[in-house]
Amino acid sequence: MSEQIERERSSEEEDTLARSTKKYKDHHPSPSCGAHSKGETFGSGFSSYRDRLVGAIPGAYEQAFGFASSLHGDGEMDEDAANLREGCVAIGLSREEKQRIRAPWALSIIVKTFGRNVGFMFLSSKVRALWNPLGRMDCIDIGHDYFLLKFELQSDLDNVLKGGPWFVGQHFLAIRQWEPDFRPSLATFSSVAVWVRFLELPLEFYEPSFFKKMGTAIGPVLRIDAHTVHGARGRYARLCIQVNLEEPLPNTVLIGQGRV
To answer: Is the pTM of this model over 0.85?
Structure first.
């Protein structure tokens, strides 16, 4: 009899446990689902602006701005410096020492705003709200209006690179991968992302493949405004394009017998 009661009690406990587990799962998504959801809403902090953009040009931003998956710089041992000037001393580093001191910065990027110089607190709060990282993200002011952002998680860094271009207010946030021996006083950003308007573009040209072809005549196309794709506004087409500041910028695009 006691064994039968024990079996019935175990059966009831298992049924209760199953119902409790189902309720917990219904109200607490698994970590993988939570991460996926966070990733989906990664750009939704931009709801009034980002929702109007077509962001599916895979790898465009990373490729245009030359990001690499491996650390830059040599991994060889430094040779003894010769013919040092008076008062100068040389410190050599082995390959192992270089790898050790560079490893903590592998998931780091360097950023700078164009069109406006911003302070540390302003930039730090803006990018945190913009990117909403799952892991830790440290912001470091390294001088000359450059900031270093160090990520704890590779996924957070990937979201930033794949989700660009980014803007702080109306100002483009230039991003470059961290590299050894980076000196802000000597650094330059030659490539930026800009929104280009093509005024009075004939409506028959409002087609995604043509937009990309037209934009590529100026530079790599990073994004296409959603209103442009859907033809919701015919006064102008708007594309986000990478331009090289060291080269002359075109002011006219010829299409057949017409120009825009």
So the answer is: no
